[in-house]
Amino acid sequence: MVSLSIDADDEPKEAPKGVLDDGIGVYLKRSLGEVLFGTKLNILGLCIPLAFIAKHQEWDQGYIFAFSLLAIAPIAERIGFVTEQLALYTNPTIGGLLNASMGNITELIICIIAIKTGELRVVQLSLLGSILSNLMLVLGCAFLAGGMRHPIQNFNKSASSTNASLLMLAVLCLVLPSALQTSGGLGSDEAEALSKDLELSRFSSVLMLLVYAATIIFQLKTHTHLFDEEDDEDEESILGFWGAMFWMAVITVLLAFLSEFLVVTIKGASESYGISSYFLTTIVLPIVGNAAEHAAAVVMAYKNKMEISMGVAVGSATQIALFVIPACVVVGWAADVDLDLDFSVFDTMAMVSSVLVVVMIIQHGESHWLHGLMLVTAYIIVAGAYWVHVDESLE
Question: Per-residue pLDDT for 26 more than 60?
Answer without folding.
Answer: yes
